């Protein structure tokens, strides 16, 4: 019998979400942000760039670019400033929630489930996005970013710190993630893990790292449920 989201949610006390690609549909926006950065640098983006920076902090991304291209006339600070300008512009104007995400958050909150965000992004980017959605931000009990821990994804630190902030043991938690790096981190926590298929790459590997794969939260919200699940 196949696993359903309702089965995984039963008894859960906390739900922790990645941000990019899991709560918000930012894949195309990140493509624009990356391209704008390389246009500013006057460089061609490496074909393996997205894979190389997955889970890295902004400072680590800047350091990677400087090392990869052996840059001597551009500082890490200037790259970070350019990245931040691009993030603020695109995230304020173009990023939207994943289908059904807001309704799903409201559903969980109404059931008394604590809600957290654990992301490799920064507090500034997350809060900038939620400044346009204060009613949704009010549903979030904890936001933990890579700035708050020693090791970013694929280490499980951001998830574990978020669960600690929520006062919930990993065995009572469920994590929603979309990336291989994030799923690898999630599987190390002891939580149940759901993969959000916001982009179709690496499906086989993602399936191996999660107990359930869904394309949107609407798949659960609008499917028939038993009285116990509703």
From TrEMBL:
Keywords: Hydrolase. The keyword Manganese does not apply. Gene3D superfamilies: HAD superfamily/HAD-like, Putative phosphatase, domain 2. One of its GO terms (molecular function) is phosphatase activity. CDD domains: HAD_BPGM-like. InterPro entries: HAD-like_sf (IPR036412), HAD-SF_hydro_IA (IPR006439), HAD_2 (IPR041492), HAD_sf (IPR023214), PGP-like_dom2 (IPR023198). This is Hydrolase haloacid dehalogenase family.
